[in-house]
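Structure ticket #2291
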Amino acid sequence: MTTSTISQNGQTTIPAKVRAFLRVGPKDRIVYQFEGNRIVLEAAIASTDALYGAFKSGRKPPTKAGLLAARKAHYARKYA
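Resolution: structure written out below.
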């Protein structure tokens, strides 16, 4: 059994074993589900956030020179 303590502010640290089991880390979200007199803790998976970067676009990332040229062209059109 794994336990944690609740602070005076009502906060607790999720033990490392639980975080590893849920595969969650900093900035991840968790869901508390109430089932009778029990609470179930699950990792929250956002539909689009979970898929970000999962698929290759086939495009190469822009170079710094390419980004600067695109910015220059954008402002040239915007303020022409």
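Closing remark: The chain has one domain: 16-78.
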